[in-house]
Specification:
alpha/beta, 267 residues, globular, five-stranded mixed sheet, 11 helices, Rossmann fold, single chain
Length: 267
């Protein structure tokens, strides 16, 4: 068993995820699935915004589409979701972890997700150390937060963007990371902090990209699987939101954990 570090931020989030490891799943798999489940649920919600009855779909747990199917595949991976009673299933702990992540991110206004990954999962494996928040803050003070866009070719969990956003929330953030889990963590962090961002999974040196997530204020995320034979969609706008109904207000790091998160994670 690998030696982990003390949990400084995200203690309640990690406590819920550890409950799932008691079923015999590794902490690496649980954390990776947690990120994938959260992202799939949010993508599914945005995808269902095209329907006029999206509010009813959410309330009745009847979201549809490819992201909902992806989400359900992750749910089915944990067989205890069928054998355990409500409140004791892996998905119940995933749901609680998601609510705690929002609450703990709101409270400290820092990169809770990245802290958990670095201290409990990666442990510096393959040289994977994120820039400390204090250094990111110093870089913001040196560089300033003027202009319209900020880019980071090795964005990790998006910590530099979070520091920049504290100085200027109106910036548009462009991030790239070769690690699938890091690119997805940055995407979730951009959503949690309610920022506008385009996050790529790919190699910033060779410019070979595989996925793009567009995050827009208000709680919306779009995913694009990039065709290597086509030009990168660097200026393509995300699909237009429907005029009706008005978007359901989504949680950000400046708000308390919402009731809607329970609906997103219902079985």
């Amino acid at each position: 068993m690998k030696q982990t570090n003390p949990v400084v931020r995200g203690k309640q989030t990690w406590k819920q995820l550890l409950e799932i490891t008691r079923f015999g799943y590794s902490s690496n798999d649980v954390f990776s699935d947690f990120v994938a489940i959260c992202l799939s649920a949010l993508l599914s919600f945005t995808d269902n915004m095209q329907y006029a009855d999206v509010t009813d779909r959410l309330a009745e747990n009847k979201l549809t589409g490819v992201y909902e199917e992806r989400y359900m595949q992750l749910v089915q991976k944990y067989k205890e979701n069928k054998s355990r009673k409500s409140g004791e299933r892996p998905m119940d702990f995933f749901t609680s972890a998601w609510g705690q992540l929002q609450a703990e991110t709101q409270e400290c206004q820092e990169d809770v997700l990245g802290d958990l990954y670095e201290s409990q999962i990666s442990l510096g494996e393959h040289g994977q150390f994120f820039t400390p928040g204090s250094i990111s803050t110093m870089m913001v003070q040196l560089l300033g937060a003027t202009g319209e866009t900020i880019s980071d070719p090795c964005c990790g969990s998006g910590r530099f963007f979070i520091s920049m956003a504290k100085a200027n929330r109106d910036l548009h953030f462009y991030g790239v990371d070769v690690s699938p889990i890091c690119a997805r963590m940055t995407t979730l962090n951009m959503w949690l902090f309610d920022l506008n961002a385009d996050i790529y999974q790919g190699n910033s040196l060779s410019m070979e990209m595989s996925y793009l997530w567009r995050v827009r204020k208000g709680g919306f995320i779009w995913e694009t699987k990039i065709d290597p034979n086509k030009a990168l969609p660097t200026v393509e706008k995300p699909p237009a939101l429907p005029e009706k109904p008005k978007p359901v207000k989504q949680p950000t790091a400046k708000m308390s954990a919402p009731a809607v998160q329970q609906s997103l994670f219902d079985l």
